[in-house]
Amino acid sequence: MVGIVGYGAQIPRHRIKVEEIAKVWGADAPSYKKGLMLSEKSVPTPDVDTITLSVAAARNALKRALINPKDIGAVYVGSESHPYAVKPSGTTVAEAIGCVPDCHCADFEFACKAGSEAMFVGLGLVKSGFCKYVLAIGGDTSQGAPGDALEYSAAAGAAAFIMGKKDVIAECTHTYSFMTDTPDFWRREHEFYPQHAGRFTGEPAYFRTVKGAAAGILKKAGMTPKDFDYVIFHQPNGKFPQRVGKMLGFTKKQIEPGWLAPRLGNTYSGASPIGLTSTLDISKPGDKILMISYGSGAGSDAFVWKVTDRIKEARDLAVRTSTLLDKNITYVDYGTYAKYRHKILKNK
Amino acid sequence: MFPSRIWREMPQRYRLEASTCKKCGKIFYPPRLICDKCGYRKFEKINLPEEGKLKTFTVIRTPASQFSDEAPYAIGIIRFSNGLQMMGQIVDCDLEKLKIGQAMRLEFRRVQTHDTHGVLSYAHKFVPKWY
Ligand SMILES: [Zn+2]
Question: Which residue on chain B is closest to A46 by alpha carbon?
């Protein structure tokens, strides 16, 4: 049996409301809230980045896995906001959790899909016997250009998963990936903010890819939407996952536990992985969970997870994702947000 | 900070590694080569707990230039259950609500960014315990 032996998340404490951003750009907050189905998003302080979020999430995963970090054979961090252009994030994470030097590290990038590809590769290495355990992380402190629609959703957070064969919390029974060259969102080198192709990011990009991945994995697993207890989709906003879920025949009840974008925003590489952590938090032994990520450019990784008895013992060994999402929140105004996100130019 | 110093201090800054004298049991953070109590040179490596209690703190309003964007901010000393004390920055807090004796959790954060081009340095900061 190959699957998740430990999982954990991290979300910054600060939030900004849609109204606060809309006010600055003369935009209509109610229509943005309705259009995106999103009311606020997480904001990282200047001392929080993809590496610090990854370390916190990884430590939560270790608390649930109850393993020696020295047994982790690989550390993979997937992000589109690695703090360095040149220098890995993974080595800092590996150093901080104490699994150096006997491990393999690589940073993954694929817009919002970088986290799930770290998970996919980790599962493969464990299955093949190359590694006893692999730590796979998806995390981002994503940036939306000031005034752009993405500014309302680009958020921060991370989720970490330790893949292994022994004492599995959720077995991975099937995977399927769907990839095409679809240029809907990109950032060229030396550019500060990404660009997107407006409405082209919807139908031909997100919806076609997620639906393609869903069709592929349902066929491969011989399952239908009714066979699942829960489903998690990539969530660039609150609306897309609800819409694609409805198109595919999933119910709101199946989507609900992993649907965090309305209060969290889009955590990019962390989005569907954090959704999986909050779903595992409330799942029961025997539950079947479908997870489908999406990364622009474009592709989806799909996984079928089957929850085991170990969830009962493991879930409260670390903080639940709902606690990170809803408790002890500090709201910031646009000025503070602009300062935190380095949107203000200062004299050198 | 030079990359070499960041690298040298990683065990204590990244993993909270301390050393316990194998003869008299005194704990050192950061780790030392010779025990200042009994002169012994053999130590056992331990990791500090992730939680402590705030012993004292002060609010910095006129910081060193590299921290000017962060002012005002609090610096505190926390005491671990093993008696060891550690100084650090307190973040994610309301400065008016900090209280001596308050439980604190250690979180891995960026400490210095060295403008936009230098090596990033990381260490643990204190966050009021909230769950
Ligand atoms: Zn001694």
Answer: B110
Whether the Cβ atoms of residue B125 and residue B106 lie closer than 8 Å to each other: yes
A287-338 per-position pLDDT tens digit: 999 999 999 999 999 999 999 999 999 999 999 999 999 999 999 999 999 9
User: Could you give the 3-state DSSP secondary structure of residue B65?
Assistant: helix
**The domain over range B49-131 is classified in CATH as 2.40.50:** yes
Is there a common fold for A3-169+317-340 and A170-311? yes
**Contact state of A327 with B131 under an 8 Å Cβ cutoff:** yes
Q: Which CATH class is domain A170-311?
A: alpha beta
Going from N- to C-terminal start, the domains of chain A cover: 3-169+317-340, 170-311
Report the separation in Å between the CA atom of B84 and the middle of ligand 1, taken as the mean of its atom positions.
15
Single out the residue of A166, A141, A50, A191 nearest to residue A341, CA to CA.
Answer: A141
Predicted complex ipTM exceeds 0.95: yes
For the stretch B17-50, pLDDT in tens is 999 999 999 999 999 999 999 999 999 999 999 9
- Partnered with residue A330 across adjacent β-strands are A14
Among residues B124, B104, B115, B105, the alpha carbon closest in space to that of B69 is found at B115
Q: How far is A52 from chain B (nearest CA, A)?
A: 6
> pTM score, two decimals?
0.97
**Which CATH superfamily groups domain A3-169+317-340?**
Thiolase/Chalcone synthase (3.40.47.10)
Rounded distance from Cα A147 to ligand 1 centre (Å) = 61
